Amino acid sequence: MAPNTATAGKSYAQKAADLFMTAVGMKSATKPEPKEDAFAEEKLNPVASANLLAERCRQYLSNSDVQKIREAFRYADQAHLGQFRNSGAPYITHPIAVAEILASWHMDAETIEAGLMHDVLEDTGITKIEMSEKFGVKVAELVDGVSKLDKLKFSSNEEAQAESFHKMLLAMSRDVRVILIKLADRLHNMRTLGAVKQHKKFRIAKETMDIYAPIASRLGLFSVYRELSDMSFSYMYPIRYRVLEKKVAESRMRKKNALDQIYHETSDRLAARKIRGDVQGKNKSLWRIYSKMKERKIRFSEVLDVHSFRVLVPTRDDCYRALGVIHELYKPVPGRFKDFVAIPKANGYQSLHTTVIGPGGLMVEFQIRTEEMHHICEDGITAHWLYRDRNTSDQLQRNTMDWLNGLLEIQKQSGTSLEFMENIKVDIFPDRVYVFSPRGRIIQLPKGSTAVDFAYQIHTDLGNCTIGCEINGETAPLTRELKNGEMINIIKGDKPTPNPSWLSSVRTGKARAEIRQYMRSLSEEGKIELGSKLLERSSKSHHLPYSKVTNEDWTRVCKANGFTDKNALLDAIGSGQKDSLLLLHQLTAPYTLKGNETATTVQQSQEPVLALKGQICKLAPCCTPAMDDVIIGHYIAGTNTLHVHRKDCSHVQRGMRTDPENWRDLQWNSQYKGGYPVKLDIELTNTHATLERLTSMIAQQHSSVTGFAMSQQNSVDKVELTILVGDTKHLQKIINAIRTIDTVRLVSRHLESTPAMKPVDVEIDE
């Protein structure tokens, strides 16, 4: 990818650290190496850059290894001859920079050779066979694992990305060095993104935020994760980034004296207790701060842990002693203590976290860990190469390979690359919950996981045969979200009967892949039978009048969803392509409105609004008006049709200016007994765990879901539901009920905006 032309040389993490240290007046927690301009490698002669790389490698590799690296440079230089980056620099400067990053992680010679040649197979006519003959099969396999699939044709960019990522993960499962090369490649590309055209910056930054930053976190490469996250943030939302950067700097300068006092008091008290503690100021990622503000819907001034310190001590025992000292000095904030030393994260992270109230009521976070833990935290899986004489990374290596093998297992059960991408995406994010098996085994799962996820994590057969569960000794629903520290006991049946409805609540990729694989294995008759049973089961558990559904209802719903007949729809439910509860809502929609139990269809013989005789009224989909809304109609000449809008609809405001003579005030027809389809916009923190609760809640309020769409915008899960309501009072009752669901962030009535009214970047107020 192309570089940019001019940005400051230090990484975002380093710049933030320097800013913090200037404000607090203490030594930096990071250990940045002196860097020139980010494009220094492109201003030097490539041969000179290669010589500098060779000298760096010579510090820890043999002369024969360095010679191989030089040969790889010459090979790549010749292959990329005549190719240039967007900045105008020779293309070879990018592979050299990637190799330099790998050398800073003390990677072996094969990895650095592959880093130098990582674009050769993709961008030149050289084949994998030719490369393997000259540099060996392992190097060629590494390069092939990193290469994209640009030469193949896909139906969409999403499919191309999924297939490329699919291939990379499979290669990564065979050799983890593949992803390290890819991360180094992405890190340099992000550092040089300025020269890329504006419309590409957001796409590349979002891909980095969605995929590569989480992978870096999952592998324990937190320094890489922080830099990728903050750089992606700066390109995705430049205004928000600059506003937040300024506010963090101002806050640190204002609180300089208090931070300085905390630093000296903590250092002195540790020394007095004869604990060798190295207290360091720690910069918090701007993206983490912004994410917290967005998730909790709070202002910058309400973020409690903008300012934090790190304490490095010699031993594990000293971690807990230092914690006691800090809690003696400052009052801890209840509920803000986490022990990742006793129970490490899946990526090997270990540390004690506590938030305390310092001088003047200033809240600061302390992270306490040993030097050994710190190396694993910052360097992650690369600690295996950085600290060869240590055994500290052995467990992390095992955890990583277990994770990669798990991805390989999910891949085998996934039907397509897009499905594989969907299945594994949640597993690469770091938020975890820790639960126990009856024998005391600790199982780590993504937040929002259920007992079904737990069962599949133990073993596929257990998951397939699950019929119930006990949580802390008490019977509990299989779809209930698990919490930290709970003990889970799975009740196993005699035969494998996974329920496709679990797909709406399970969180792990393994569970989703196994359930879908089971459904794919059924015969056509088996899928139809299962689909029918799922509809009956859903109708009983959600009290929906399935028995009243007629052939006309089946025809209506089949047509609305693109199915030829009833059996095709049941097949789609039984194979997991369609959610049984959502389709059940559509089938029973005419019978769910309170007081309308005897209706067979929404009455078409009577118009919902009072209009001239013979005129057809259509409720506008842009604002979905309902009884008691203030409404206005737009008459379209020649069609004899009135389009009914809410008066606050943006299309009305625009239409009244351009075509005022064809707009008229309207009144609702109080004799109309049909329902009104209304759209709701809902933001969720956990889509899979919420949908069933959402549709169930709507059914309890005597309504039904007649339309459903899901999307993700700016890393936020969004659902657009169309529900049937009797009037605006009924609608408000439904909205109030939905707001009681803890995983619902926001619910509002849908109202489309015209292009001129689209929202823009908002400022972050303190």
TrEMBL record:
GO terms under cellular component: plasma membrane
Gene3D superfamilies: 3.10.20.30, 3.30.70.260, Beta Polymerase, domain 2, Hypothetical protein af1432
Keywords associated with the record: Hydrolase
Pfam families for the chain: ACT_4, HD_4, RelA_AH_RIS, RelA_SpoT, TGS
Domain TGS: 431-492
Keyword Hydrolase: yes
Span of domain HD: 91-190
GO biological process: guanosine tetraphosphate metabolic process; nucleobase-containing small molecule interconversion; response to starvation
GO molecular function: GTP diphosphokinase activity; guanosine-3',5'-bis(diphosphate) 3'-diphosphatase activity
Chain's role: In eubacteria ppGpp (guanosine 3'-diphosphate 5'-diphosphate) is a mediator of the stringent response that coordinates a variety of cellular activities in response to changes in nutritional abundance.
Family per similarity comment: Belongs to the relA/spoT family.
The protein, known as: Putative guanosine 3',5'-bis(Diphosphate) 3'-pyrophosphohydrolase
